[in-house]
Amino acid sequence: MTAKLSDKVAIVTGASSGIGKATALALAAEGARIVLAARRSEKLDQVAEQIQANGGNALPIKTDVTNQTQAQQLIQKANDVFGQVDILVNSAGIAILGEIDGANPADWQRMFDLNVLGLMYTTHAVLPILKAQKTGHIVNISSVAGRIARAGVGAYNASKWAVNAFSEALRQEVYQHQIRVTVIEPGLVETELFDHVTDPVARQHNLDRLRSLRPLQGEDIAAAILYAVTQPPHVNVNEILIRPTDQER
Ligand code: NDP
């Protein structure tokens, strides 16, 4: 059987854990050469070794995507090394949860710097390359929280709403260049995401929610991404909303 992505190069941010890691492994298993980006270089090296042990090709690049220069360098280096960039998966993100009253606005800044601006920086950097190639695919990881607001999730909701709005405007700007844009909106996925929630009440609440059902795994989201990026060129999967069967909303 021919691998579906054997002529493709994919950059995955947030590739050191969770959804990004699972996506990097899934795209590599279909033959894509993978550029792995995140801040923890030892974790990226482990993912790269795993891909290489399976006969794939992976290049780890330590990157803080909230730094515009680093985001630009990531895209540039990927293009310099492989001579093309076909897929960008923006998976790097954090969830800082808790009520608006009493929240620390510095946490909001940190979350918007990553969830919104980081994704915008990598997108901005890759667009000239994709336009020159007249092909490319940008996959942005939003959330169910990008479609449904809930008390205690307001700031995260706002960041993911921004991802959805940016992605749709982007799609309208680039479709004539044969560049596709897909938004993925996962429900609860068992990853490190909730380990980084600083508010202890919100953290416990979300860990309890996660334990109350059969959560999705990173691999489930990776399969949805793989579906989107392996469609024929005339098909643009704009949006995939994917919840655990047990999750109500
Ligand atoms: P993880 O915490 O497992 O992964 C987050 C990734 O982002 C890590 O690889 C982390 O790596 C990376 N990251 C964090 N800060 C930066 C930074 N400044 N620069 C570059 N990379 C960074 O969580 P998930 O895999 O669950 O999250 C991935 C995406 O999925 C996020 O956008 C999240 O909002 C979204 N999502 C998750 C859901 C869930 O239930 N888990 C549900 C819906 C959406 P490092 O620390 O090494 O930099």
TrEMBL record:
Report domain Ketoreductase positions.
Answer: 8-192
Q: Which GO terms describe its molecular function?
A: oxidoreductase activity, acting on the CH-OH group of donors, NAD or NADP as acceptor
Keywords in alphabetical order, please. Oxidoreductase
Query: What domain of life?
Result: Bacteria
Q: Which Gene3D superfamilies match?
A: NAD(P)-binding Rossmann-like Domain
Q: Which SMART domains match?
A: PKS_KR (SM00822)
InterPro entries to which the protein is assigned, alphabetical: KR_dom (IPR057326), NAD(P)-bd_dom_sf (IPR036291), Sc_DH/Rdtase_CS (IPR020904), SDR_fam (IPR002347)
Q: Which family does it belong to?
A: Belongs to the short-chain dehydrogenases/reductases (SDR) family.
Q: Under what name is this protein listed?
A: SDR family NAD(P)-dependent oxidoreductase
Q: What species does this protein belong to?
A: Leptolyngbya sp. NK1-12
